[in-house]
Amino acid sequence: MLEISKADESTVLLKGRMDASQADAAHEVMDALTGTCTVDFAGLEYISSAGLKVLLATQQRLWESGGEIVLQGMTPHVRMVFDLAGFDSVFKIS
Amino acid sequence: MRLHRQLKLESSLEHMDRIVEETDQFLMPLGLDDDLAYNIVLVTTEAVTNAIEHGNAMDADKWVHVHYEATENVVEISVEDEGEGFSPSAVPDPLAEENLLAGGGRGVYLIEEIADEVEYQADGRRVVMRFKTGS
């Protein structure tokens, strides 16, 4: 399961597992983001390629208007997936 | 030591939690370290997602067959769909500069990067992933 909540207008908190079964729900929340936003991964145990795809689509959409996603709080396991996927060069990761 | 388990899943992404639970349960008695167990669950989930979405094209009449086997030094997991098959060499390299911002190919890439051995059988309908668990 994936829990998605907003700490404020520009910060999304992810908790649980972000896989193909949760991609539509994640898309729905991400599609509402504007400007530069922070996605907090501290509660995220797992991300699959389907979850990466959702973040990539959001990043590309925000780039078009001069914004972007900044990612924070990744566990080492989730960071490993980002690094393997080459996404450390696509997202700011703090 | 030889442990094995078989699983048959409908072609629905609603079963992703089940594949995680089944894989966790299979691995638990092996006492693997956390990183290896995490990686095995990750790539098994990727392979099942590919089988449901691409292999079986979400066709509810088609099944995904998962077979787990553990021997003393190796965990082997095969995931088979009932689709048309595919050629792994046709999957673009997602890390190539021209593909980095494209959406596809990362599931296969993660499987091949993380598993110690990957073998495609039955015209690509079956992927066999092996993980070394001992010296």
Strand order of the largest sheet of chain B: 1-2-3-5-4
Q: Which CATH class of chain A applies here?
A: Alpha Beta
Q: Report the major sheet of chain B.
A: 5 strands, antiparallel
CATH architecture of chain A: 2-Layer Sandwich
Please state the CA-atom Rg of chain A, rounded to the nearest Å.
Answer: 12 Å
Instruction: Name the CATH superfamily assignment of chain A.
Output: STAS domain
Q: How many domain modules of chain A?
A: 1
Q: Can you write the helix and strand succession of chain B as a string?
A: EHHEEHEE
Derived from helix and strand composition plus strand pairing, the structural class of chain B reads alpha+beta
Q: For the residues shown, what is the average pLDDT of chain A?
A: 92
Q: How many strand units of chain A?
A: 5
Q: Please give the alpha-carbon distance between the first and last residues of chain B.
A: 15 Å
How would you characterize the overall build of this protein?
The complex is a heterodimer of chains A (94) and B (135). Chain A contains three helices and five strands; from the N terminus they run ββαβαβαβ. Chain A is an alpha/beta fold and 94 residues long. Chain A has a single domain, classed as Transcription Regulator spoIIAA. In chain A, helix 1 packs parallel to helix 2. Chain A is globular. The mean pLDDT of chain A is 92. Chain B is of the alpha+beta class and 135 residues long. Chain B is 32% helix and 26% strand. Chain B has a five-stranded antiparallel β-sheet with strand order 1-2-3-5-4, with helices on one face. In chain B, helix 1 packs antiparallel against helix 2. Chain B is globular. Chains A and B meet through helix 2 and helix 3 of A and helix 1, helix 2 and helix 3 of B.
